[in-house]
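Hi there. Long-time user, first ticket. I'm pasting a complex I've been working with (about 446 residues overall). I'd like to know whether the download I got is complete or cut off, because the file seemed smaller than I expected. Thanks.
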Amino acid sequence: MEYVAPNSLDKAAEIAANARGSVRYLAGGTDVLVQLRSGLHQPSLVIDLKRIPGMLDVVRTADGGWKIGAATPATTLNAIKELRQSWPGIVEAAELIGSTQIQGRASLAGNLCNGSPAADTVPAMLAAGATVTIVGANAERKTLSIDDIVKAPGQTHLKPRDIVASINLPARSQKGADAYLRFIPRTEMDIAVVGCAVNMSLDGETVSEASVALGAVAPTVVLVPEAAECLLGTRLEDEAMENLSMSCRAACNPIDDKRGTVEFRISIAGVLAQRAARTAYQRARERQ
Amino acid sequence: MKMMHVTTSINGDPTEFLCDPRETMLDVLRDRLNLTGAKEGCGTGDCGACSIILGGEVICACLMLAAEAEGQDIETVEGMANDENLHPLQKKFLEHAALQCGICTPGILVAAKALLEKTNNPTETEVRYWLAGNLCRCTGYDKIVRAVMDAAEEMRSL
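Hi, the file is complete. Here it is re-exported in full:
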């Protein structure tokens, strides 16, 4: 195995294009290093992205959105007050991953590329309508949605040489907010049994836009438009909440494993969706 | 195998080493630089026994390639004491008997040092969450948390 740390995206793309054998990109390394050491992946080349300017930075874009460099760790996101105000659900999802040590390295882009159906930040990014800037093998730039990338457990629709350059969050509407919740059997340091993100905007007290995403209840993280539909035009009255739960449960196709049974995961998905919706609603009302 | 030449700073000392690109920072600290304070517990970032400070952030040395150290500032447990004078955290760990077998202790000291550099007055809850990634199978954590709280108090009065 060889290791290189190029100082530009174009250079990284060129090195990748000319590489023989398999290539792995390295951001925080909290998944990649484990896979290297276990022998799951044995790349002939590791391309470290952290020396590329912008990869560890978060910048406000001209339209009020955010551009988050692909190797930006959770601790950096956590420290940016304006980002927490705009996208509290994204930041709280990132904060739930692993320990302090992991937070110092783990990135949103890495969480996406790892392809876990239980990834905490992916439901939050999906509900947020985040996009991903990708540099292809010929150094051409393209922008995909999160939904374009998730594919199967441990797999994405990215091409082998594609580099994720940044995660882009849209500008936050005046009266909107998001929330992410997950269920685990302990208080920290575990993998989601169920995760749920809700993102919404209000018109007065009424939900005018919504999106709902679930994690760990299907082979991939899933967007549930039928669940979001249940929230539109409501003030989260009991009936809307009940419909939200039913839609989320209907969208579940989970596995049984040591963390939870199929029945348990389906049941909890409905509960978490209600709680995440209430939290997002409360935050949106407080923002005005 | 082509070896890599890496120039870095460890506990303030300019350091150079040669490594295999597959080696982790933990491998190099322990096997090439004889800094054996950081321990390999799990090798997968779960136990925190290999905690080091990289550019001010506490991380697991087992999840970092040694080649990534180029041009960085690294702190390990070996840099905590000042000659014969132990760091307040080290003194308090002794006073409170906050260790038994000692395998987790270097990692916990390093992680706690990083916490106290960010906040000198953490709550017990903050200490417990901060150290959640440092597993100890002996103490039950209570004495560790008390030692960290006591060290924070002493450091505030310095």
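A couple of notes from our side: Chain A touches chain B at residues 1-3, 5, 26, 28-30, 33-34, 36-38, 46, 48, 50, 73, 75, 98-102, 104-105, 188-189 (CB under 8 Å). The first strand of chain A starts at residue 2 and ends at 4.
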